[in-house]
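TA notes, week 10

Several of you asked for a full example with nothing omitted. So below is the full record: structure tokens for the whole chain, then the designed sequence directly under it. When grading your own attempts, check the secondary structure regions first.
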């Protein structure tokens, strides 16, 4: 039992250190920012801009798959919360082979790329009220980089 406590404490210390790297700017940070209108009408497209910012000191290759950098959504990439409940993904799902070089986008240090997404085509946004959305960090895959800290703050909007 004592051994579990030691392991748990070590995990908590590591997790705290990772979180402080996110908040202090230390480490290799890749920031995801979602923006859009604060209010939408029912049945109106919920267009959001998703920006990917490389705040590291090296160029990164980000896999486009499952991100708004593709022309259409192809997987459950966002955590969408309405009335305290996570909304299920209702969009298209694509099964693929291994990624090729052309499937990645190069993002130089201190640079950003962005894409647009109509969230309503992949999630049921048919109820009035407040919604919170953020990109799931596990969606992001980098080529030859496994030590990247991803920061994605939630974006809040309402539907009337």
């Amino acid at each position: 039992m004592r051994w579990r406590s030691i392991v748990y404490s070590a995990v908590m210390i590591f997790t705290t250190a990772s979180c402080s790297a996110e908040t202090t700017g230390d480490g290799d940070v890749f920031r995801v920012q979602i923006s859009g209108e604060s209010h939408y009408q029912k049945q109106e497209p919920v267009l959001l801009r998703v920006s990917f910012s490389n705040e590291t000191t090296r160029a990164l290759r980000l896999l486009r798959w499952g991100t708004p950098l593709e022309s259409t959504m192809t997987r459950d990439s966002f955590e969408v919360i309405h009335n305290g409940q996570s909304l299920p993904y209702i969009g298209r799902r694509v099964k693929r082979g291994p990624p090729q070089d052309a499937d990645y986008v190069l993002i130089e240090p201190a640079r950003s790329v962005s894409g647009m997404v109509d969230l309503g085509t992949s999630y049921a946004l048919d109820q009035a009220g407040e919604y919170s959305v953020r990109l799931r960090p596990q969606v992001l895959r980098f080529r030859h980089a496994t030590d990247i800290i991803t920061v994605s703050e939630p974006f809040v909007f309402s539907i009337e």
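Helices lie at 2-24. Use that as a sanity check on your answer.
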